[in-house]
Amino acid sequence: MQTIVLGLVSGTLYALIALGITLVYKSSRILNFAQAEVGTLALYWTWWIAGRNGQPWALGAVAAIAFSVAVSLLFERFVIRPMFAASRVSLAVATIGLLALMIAIEEALFAGSIKEIPPPLSSGGFSVAGVVISPTQELSLLVAVAIAVVLGVFLRFTDFGLGVLATADDPEAARLMGVSRARVSVFTWGTAGVLSALAALLVEPSIGALAPGVFSGGLFLGGFTAALLGGLTSLPGAFVGGIAVGIIEAEVKAHLVFVSAPALQDVAMLVIVTLVLLARPQGLLGRAS
Length: 289
Prior knowledge:
globular, two-stranded antiparallel ribbon, 73% helix
């Protein structure tokens, strides 16, 4: 029971990254390898405002989200949109280039000293099955569930949301029906930026210090694995995949004592997920092609 609770907490953060990856891929078939790192770079705004200058955490969080959205939209407008006709591989490589650029900027501007950010909440929390859930972890659970519900309702019950889904299923038919591919692309990349910043803001207190590229390892790997496990084109699958990856990771760490090193734990988790995908290649909630 304790491992399940721990898995739920970490799984919601993976779910936020997975939702961003899946949303972009579902609408444009682009794998965004910079999804987590956009949040890392944005988080330095929170450090500058809340950690360095002592302003409220909420003000720094708003600045981080705004910055993350701005970076995502600029990348969409000046890199992705001109490359719409390029191969999916070329577009994925472009996101890797963005990843490398952001890490280089972080190294140049912020490396060399520890950057600490105060947690968003200092009181509250509760205990479940002997596991103490911190106020920030409680907030991450609520935020992830709320975002999953709001996205699901928006995409299913609004005209523009249905247009996004139509573009994902058949871009040419959606265009003939008057759905703007450019607007859909702006929406999906902007939303992915929000999700990246939120995931970084909520996972940072558990890490304790901010460093260049800190989220491009475990957080992105967990989120990307969750997106694959969920089906890559299924938003509910991304959320379920995030929870599943979190629980699998917690169970591996708790019971496979012979893989005590973090790298081996990641390998063991990926082996388990790979076995699931071998049995169901389309993912847990994806559709067979």
